[in-house]
Amino acid sequence: VQQVFKQLFYMINAVALNNLLLRKDVCSWSTGMQLRFNISQLEEWLRGKNLQQSGAAQTLEPLIQAAQLLQLKKKTSEDAEAICSLCTSLTTQQIVKILNLYTPVNEFEERVTVAFIRDIQTHLQERNDPPQLLLDFKHMFPVLFPFNPSSITMDSIHIPASLNLEFLNKV
């Protein structure tokens, strides 16, 4: 059950983050607030179902960081440093894309300046990120089956002749 929810939450993360990276109309402060609220509801649901150890919440980390990125101030060099230290699960390319797509929804907000984006790129140039922008929403986590040793010893097993397994010999 835990593995199923980890996979499901990863898919939610990948689809939501990919939509954020592809749609200019959703890159805003208010979308960041809505995303963070929805993610907190998912995390609360996981706690309520006692699934917090499943790793499902950790798969949402890139989306959480993207939501926080949308909500942070984006003006000074200190803001750039804060963004770089906060957004560890996002690649440089993803951070820059979200900042380029950021669209103010009211008169109190301003577009992100080109100088600020270059400052971010300067801070992040030492990162060794993969070149892909979008997350692979078809990624599958390996299924792990726990090993439960049997209390039955091999000496006590009787193999019926009707199974036609004569090639098995007791040693």
UniProtKB/TrEMBL annotation:
Pfam families: DIL. It comes from Herpetotheres cachinnans. InterPro entries: Dilute_dom, Vascular_dev_regulator. PANTHER family: DILUTE DOMAIN-CONTAINING PROTEIN, DILUTE DOMAIN-CONTAINING PROTEIN YPR089W. It comes from the Eukaryota. This is MYO5B protein. Residues 1-126 form the Dilute domain. GO terms for molecular function: GTPase binding.
